[in-house]
């Protein structure tokens, strides 16, 4: 999972990296890459790539069949699979596998591992975030065939690029794969688990990796908190790669010698709401009128300036990623883009029409209950915390009180998964190919949610809408680029704007700072071989494999 750039204290950072041979900015060739994924608080030992609280593994330890690069529209890169093809009507997918791959414990990788994994996913709702319904056969050691009950072209990138292949000889012993913590991961990937501590763990290069041993021999992951110390760590050269905002990022090469930055739009920042009372959600946010009032009460221009250094951009309430999906943006939306400035009159009209009345304290109330909501955020995510502090002041102008509640990442992730929240701030992420279908199928499909108390993955808002479900089913039957798909995109976008289970904030400009002096081979805007975010998986593993220590 993502997340952001927050560092602890320079002394702690330096101590955590003291084992590295040479500082990040020092120019001495070294083999350990120090990264920060946004983890706040202690790491919990869990390398299950299908668990919502996993800390690492997809791409580095466990691999997909192919790598789909969402940074640019390019053919998928062969990984454990070497080629694939669909039959004429899109109901059967045939895959050829590598025959020279071993698991990190020495066992041979075969088609039975792929079949086992796909079967495990298809019958375990809690880990089946793609809604996979195929039936898999393994005719021999290097081939698998997946049969679908209907044309399923859009399942291709999800099955091929977002399902992590697990070793049957180990995972067949786990009765509950969704909750298995996987403390001793065995994978086919370029890295293996090294040492593990609550504040730091390492992955070490797999010397028997089928693609060749990585030039980066060790990756050290740090758990940090506190923005300013992270900035100090960059200046000291103690961190090699992090994803998140820093002051003066436009002058990074001047202010942070040895570092460069690249910023690209990817995630869509939103207020997640537990929206569905029928699935157990409680609170005023279950009322669409309240959600839409919050939407119109935001001053997004101010939030972008105060919280995001103006690196974020406009966002559509239909959740097409802009500017990537400009051609798919529906003309049927009321707001093609969320307003950057507040509309107090519109917000007030929505609330009064829904039966709310403003009390003497200026806060709306209904049935004696004031419109007061808590919003959960991870302690240390200071851009999100600043956004919420700013928003809380803005919403008082429309008679809504929100109170930010800071939690450890583990507490926040658990509450998000189980629906035990009113509001929380997070990002809606993209799928394995550059198409909004995947965001819709992940976050807005009835198939990927669950009642409150059970783990949803990843429709955390508990949103369920028959029109959206039907449109997704139709989109699944045709391949990307077919103009017949647009009416179904239109139908989805209209329903999302109407219901707003995830309240749009801004399109996140994802800033990445990397140590170009200590390591070479980073993605750049001229060479986006993977999306450059340390928390983006499996993209990060592609970066790790491409990097080389400077001077070697």
Structure description:
This is ABC transporter substrate-binding protein. Keywords: Signal, Transport. With 552 residues, the chain is an alpha+beta fold. The chain has helices spanning 10-16, 111-122, 155-162, 168-171, 227-236, 252-255, 288-297, 300-308, 344-353, 382-396, 409-418, 436-443, 466-475, 486-499, 539-546, and strands spanning 32-36, 66-67, 77-78, 81-86, 92-97, 135-140, 143-147, 191-197, 200-205, 218-222, 241-243, 259-273, 357-358, 364-366, 369-370, 372-378, 401-407, 423-428, 502-515, 519-520, 548-549. The strands form 5 sheets. It has a 10-stranded mixed sheet with strand order 8-9-10-1-11-19-12-18-16-17. Strands 4-5-7-6 form a 4-stranded antiparallel sheet, covered by helices on one side. Strands 13-14-15 form a 3-stranded antiparallel sheet, with no helix packed on it. The longest helix is centred in the C-terminal third of the chain and has 15 residues, at 382-396.
């Amino acid at each position: 999972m993502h997340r952001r750039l927050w560092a602890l204290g320079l002394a702690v950072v330096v101590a955590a990296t003291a084992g590295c041979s040479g500082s990040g900015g020092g120019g001495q060739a070294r083999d350990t890459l120090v990264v920060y994924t946004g983890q706040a608080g202690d790491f919990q030992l869990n390398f299950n790539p299908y668990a919502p609280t996993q800390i690492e593994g997809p791409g580095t330890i466990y691999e997909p069949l192919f790598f789909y690069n969402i940074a640019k529209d390019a053919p998928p890169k062969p990984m454990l699979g070497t080629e694939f093809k669909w039959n004429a009507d899109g109901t059967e997918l045939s895959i050829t596998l590598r025959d020279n791959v071993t698991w990190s414990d020495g066992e041979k990788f075969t088609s039975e591992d792929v079949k086992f994994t796909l079967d495990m996913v298809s019958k375990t709702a809690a880990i089946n975030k793609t809604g996979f319904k195929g039936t898999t056969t393994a005719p021999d050691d290097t081939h698998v065939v997946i049969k679908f009950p209907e044309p399923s072209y859009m399942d291709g990138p999800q099955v091929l690029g977002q399902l992590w292949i697990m070793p049957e000889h180990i995972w067949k012993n786990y009765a509950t794969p969704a909750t298995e913590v996987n403390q001793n991961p065995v994978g086919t990937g370029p890295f293996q688990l090294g040492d593990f501590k609550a504040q730091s763990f390492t992955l070490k290069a797999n010397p028997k990796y089928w693609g060749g041993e990585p030039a980066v021999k060790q990756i050290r992951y740090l758990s940090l908190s506190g923005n300013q110390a992270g900035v100090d760590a960059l200046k000291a050269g103690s961190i090699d790669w992090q994803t998140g905002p820093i002051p003066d990022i436009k002058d990074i090469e001047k202010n942070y010698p040895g570092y460069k930055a690249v910023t690209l739009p990817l995630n869509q920042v939103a207020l997640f709401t537990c929206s569905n009372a029928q699935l157990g959600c409680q609170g005023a946010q279950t009322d669409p009128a309240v959600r839409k009032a919050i939407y119109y009460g935001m001053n997004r221009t101010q939030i972008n300036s105060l919280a995001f250094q103006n690196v974020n951009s406009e966002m559509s309430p239909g959740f097409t990623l802009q500017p990537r999906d400009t051609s798919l943006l529906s003309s049927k939306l009321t707001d093609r883009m969320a307003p950057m400035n507040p509309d107090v009159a519109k917000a007030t009209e929505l609330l009064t029409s829904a039966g709310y009345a403003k009390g003497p304290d200026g806060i709306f109330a209904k049935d004696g209950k004031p419109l007061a909501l808590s919003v959960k955020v991870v302690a240390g995510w200071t851009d999100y915390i600043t956004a919420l502090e700013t928003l809380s002041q803005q919403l008082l102008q429309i008679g809504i009180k929100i109170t930010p509640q800071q939690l450890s990442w583990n507490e926040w992730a658990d509450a998000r998964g189980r629906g035990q929240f009113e509001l929380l701030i997070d990002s809606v992420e993209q799928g394995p190919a550059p198409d909004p279908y995947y965001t819709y199928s992940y976050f807005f499909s009835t198939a990927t949610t669950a009642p409150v108390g059970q783990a949803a993955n990843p429709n955390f808002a508990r949103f369920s809408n028959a029109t959206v479900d039907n449109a997704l089913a139709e989109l699944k039957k045709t391949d990307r680029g077919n103009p017949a798909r647009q009416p179904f995109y239109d139908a989805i976008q209209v329903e999302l704007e109407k219901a707003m289970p995830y309240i749009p904030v801004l399109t996140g400009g994802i800033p990445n700072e990397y140590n170009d002096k200590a390591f070479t081979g980073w993605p750049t805007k001229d060479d986006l071989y993977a999306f450059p975010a340390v928390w983006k998986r499996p993209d990060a593993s592609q970066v790790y494999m491409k990097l080389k220590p400077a001077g070697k």
